[in-house]
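Re: weekly structure request thread

Next one in the queue (120 aa):
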Amino acid sequence: MSITATVLVLLIAALHVYILVLEMFLWTTPRARASFGTTVELAERTKALAANQGLYNGFLAAGLVWGAVAADPVGFQARVFFLVCVAVAGVYGAVTASRKIVFVQTVPALVALGFVVAAH
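Done, posted below.
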């Protein structure tokens, strides 16, 4: 895999670790509330739900890191699978929550996927 593809995969993994931290540990802070457009009251009521979402983002990050370090063919398969998962999750989030998610999550995942496939 090319260095560019590896860096892109790891950057997307880092993004999902950041989202994990926001959702699991910082959900009620002003920073997380601004990022997700929630009020103090809504953030308090949805704390457990957000933590669950954060855990799933952690699984995406773990899969991307695994794909970045695993030897092919497994590494390639993991990279493709988890990048597609990120892209699909981004589309769903854009449709159900905020359109900006497509630019934060889906577009970078598809760009990385293009580099991964091109490097294979």
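The CA atoms of residues 7 and 68 lie 9 Å apart. The chain has six helices and no strands.
Next request, please.
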